[in-house]
Write a structure and sequence with these properties.
Blueprint: E1 7-10, E2 29-33, H1 44-53, E3 58-60, H2 69-79, E4 82-87, H3 107-123, E5 127-128, E6 131-132, E7 134-136, H4 147-164, E8 167-171, H5 172-178, H6 182-189, E9 193-198, H7 215-225, E10 230-233, H8 241-244, H9 246-250
Parallel strand pairs: 2-3, 2-10, 3-4, 4-7, 8-9, 9-10
Antiparallel strand pairs: 1-7, 1-8, 5-6
Helix pairs in contact: 1-2, 3-4
GO molecular function: hydroxypyruvate isomerase activity
Keywords: Isomerase
EC number: 5.3.1.22
């Protein structure tokens, strides 16, 4: 079964440590998603400083490709922030693409466009030492796809992931929608998780919004497990971005 949202992969070479720290109450590292947050400000380049002013040290984004890598790099450096994750090339968004890594007829395109993603990840220094962090997107399965088609897509996805990455990214919003059972999934898969993204279900709002996920409990699990990766805030603010950040103070961060 192809899961285009719940199981995500990062660019090859980034892997979580098999000896992840076991210290209780590990401080959590939140990363503002500057594609979804700070939309009051028109460009990604300008949002780096806004994130810095809001108290963030780490940021991520979805698709940076509409702005020049050099401009984004200068803005990140000027703000003094760490950019920890970008999405890989999505295909043609205007035509409905949302990733192409599982599409058998677009393997060549996927591997060629991966180089563009690497360029941006490198320019933004979005990596652990020597290892670029890029979220590879599988894409959409066709409506009424038969079993043979889905099997071929899954095989293609696996081969492209072998080509591109060796660490998982966990998206709590999509995981709750698709699977539920977050606690057990988290405990079983944490050794393989390299990046986490959060938003409330079902409205994809801030973590303190009324919804299906109790984030104080999730954060407590991560702290006790010694999770040392980043937590991307991939939510849609219900009002202004800064007003929506009150949840961090309420939760003690």
């Amino acid at each position: 079964m192809i899961r285009t949202a719940c199981t995500r992969i990062l660019y090859r070479g980034f892997s979580t440590s098999a000896n992840r720290s076991k210290a209780a109450n590990m401080p959590l590292k939140f990363a503002a998603n500057i594609s979804m947050m700070f939309q009051e400000i028109p460009t990604l380049a300008e949002r780096y400083q806004a994130a810095k002013n809001a108290g963030f040290q780490f940021v991520e984004c979805t698709f940076p490709y509409q702005e020049k890598a050099e401009d984004l790099s200068k803005a990140r450096i000027a703000a003094g922030l760490d950019h920890v994750l970008i999405n890989g090339y999505p295909g043609d968004l205007s035509s409905g693409d949302l990733g192409i890594a599982a599409l058998p007829d677009r393997v060549k395109e996927f591997r060629e466009k991966l180089e563009i993603s690497i360029k941006y990840a490198t320019a933004l220094n979005c990596k652990s030492p020597g290892k670029a962090r890029i979220h590879i997107m599988a894409g959409k399965k066709p409506h009424n796809a038969d079993a043979a088609t889905l099997k071929k897509m899954e095989e293609t996805f696996i081969e492209n992931l072998k080509y591109a990455a060796d660490a998982l990214k966990r998206d709590f919003y999509h995981c709750q929608i698709m699977d539920g059972n977050l606690t057990q999934n988290l405990k079983e898969q944490l050794p393989y998780i390299g990046h986490i993204q959060i938003s409330q279900v079902p409205d994809r709002g801030e973590p303190d919004a009324s919804g299906e996920i109790c984030f104080p409990y999730v954060f407590s699990l991560l702290e006790k497990a010694g999770y040392d990766g980043y937590i991307g805030l991939e939510y849609k603010p219900r009002g202004s971005t800064l007003e929506g950040l009150q949840w961090m103070k309420q939760y003690g961060y």
